[in-house]
Design goal:
The chain is an all-alpha fold and 213 residues long. 74% of the residues lie in helices and 2% in strands.
């Protein structure tokens, strides 16, 4: 069998599947046909066009549209006035028309892109990252808590003055608050600013009439 006839018949099989609205089969057979490295450029372009028309997947259509455009550019570049004829030129015109039609449809129905800020929020949520605003808020919280820490230490000193309190207990409380202030990280989902608030409550509720050691 003549090679050109064989290629034409194989393309016709893809085309018939498309005409019968068997789009999934059309795409599958078309992709299989494109695996043939000996396939003529004209057939490659026409199969790419059929896949674009058959698929409902925008990304897939765009992939094969670009492939068709690339092969079209190569084929068109190899044609000169000496090696062309009316039939060849008419074929290029039809291919160009179909590729342009697909490009317009792709541009018209391009999927809506998610808002950049929303995408960044999702990424931060997935990877545990924080926004600049969140970092600024946390920095402000840390500053406030440092001020509260100093006040709490002062309150402890005043509350324990004149009382018979084990100095090691007071020193231990002060060190615990200082360590919490030095680690602006999150542990088990709780920030140190939150931990410091809890510690602050414990300090305020402490009975400073502690027993002697």
């Amino acid at each position: 069998m003549d090679t050109k006839i064989s290629y034409a018949n194989r393309y016709r099989e893809v085309q018939e599947l498309f005409n019968e609205n068997k789009y999934d089969e059309c795409i599958a057979v078309g992709k299989q046909l494109l695996c043939d490295i000996t396939l003529p450029r004209f057939i490659i372009i026409k199969v790419c066009i059929l896949i674009c028309f058959a698929t409902e997947d925008w990304d897939e259509a765009e992939e094969y549209r670009k492939a068709g455009e690339q092969v079209f550019g190569v084929a068109r570049g190899l044609i000169t006035a000496e090696n062309t004829d009316d039939e060849t030129e008419a074929g290029f015109v039809l291919l160009r028309k179909d590729l342009d039609s697909i490009a317009k449809d792709q541009a018209r129905y391009i999927p809506e892109q998610e808002d950049d800020d929303e995408e960044m929020d999702v990424e931060r949520e997935v990877y545990g990252e924080k926004s600049e605003e969140e970092n600024e808020d946390e920095a402000e919280e840390e500053d406030v808590m440092e001020g509260e820490l100093e006040q709490q230490k002062h309150d402890i000193e005043e509350a324990t003055s004149g009382l018979d309190v084990n100095e090691e207990i007071v020193a231990g409380m002060n060190k615990e608050m200082e360590r919490a202030a030095e680690r602006p990280t999150r542990v088990n989902g709780v920030s140190n600013t939150e931990s410091m608030r809890n510690l602050s409550l414990r300090v305020r509720d402490t009975n400073y009439n502690a027993p002697k050691g």
